[in-house]
Amino acid sequence: MGKVRVGAKAIIIQEGQILLTKNQDSRGIYYMLPGGGQENGERIDEALRRECMEEAGIQVHVKELAFVRDYIARNHQIPDGTPDHFHQIELIFYCEILPGEEAGNGTDIDDRQIGVEWIAVNKLEDEKVYPVGLLPYLTGANKTPVSIYLGDIN
Q1: What is the DSSP string of 62-130?
Q2: Which pLDDT score is estimated for 153?
Q3: What is the predicted pLDDT for the residue at 56?
Q4: Alpha-carbon span 32 to 116, nearest angstrom
Q5: What is the b/e burial string over 100-117, where b = at least 16 CB atoms within 10 angstroms of the residue's CB?
Q6: Three-class SS state of 31
Q7: Which pTM does this prediction carry?
Q8: Which CATH number fits domain 5-138: 3.90.79.10, 3.40.50.300, 3.50.50.60, 2.60.40.420?
Q9: Who wins on pLDDT, 37 or 85?
Q10: CB burial class (10 A; 0-12, 13-18, 19+) of residue 137?
């Protein structure tokens, strides 16, 4: 039985556009929020900052927690090479790009990642974006709940 992995994802919206990683597998192009797995001993906000640098070449300010998602691969159309027993808890945060930073080539992109792209929020449903269930919250069709991330506190 596999272990549950913890990951962090970033919602970065500027001027009506959202920053997404552009990925490709045998079924074609798809988009995802930047982010990835937390390493042992790493705070979740540190993990997200590291992942944004690795995937999009940007430094970010991690703001409030927006969503928590279970990703259990066997329940989804999974990208090529993902084991069906893969399970990740994803903490999805609102983030801001630090002044002077510009999204582009990351320092250590994922195997299926071919770039990053700004996509108009009101055009998200025209693209293959995962997780699909997040789209109504990003486009404003559903009201976003309020969450607070307290960090590593006593």
Answers
A1: EEEEEEEEEEEGGGS-PPTT--TT-EEEEEEEEEEEPTT------SS--TTEEEEEEEEGGGGGGS-EE
A2: 56
A3: 97
A4: 9
A5: eeebeebeebbebbebbe
A6: strand
A7: 0.88
A8: 3.90.79.10
A9: 37
A10: middle
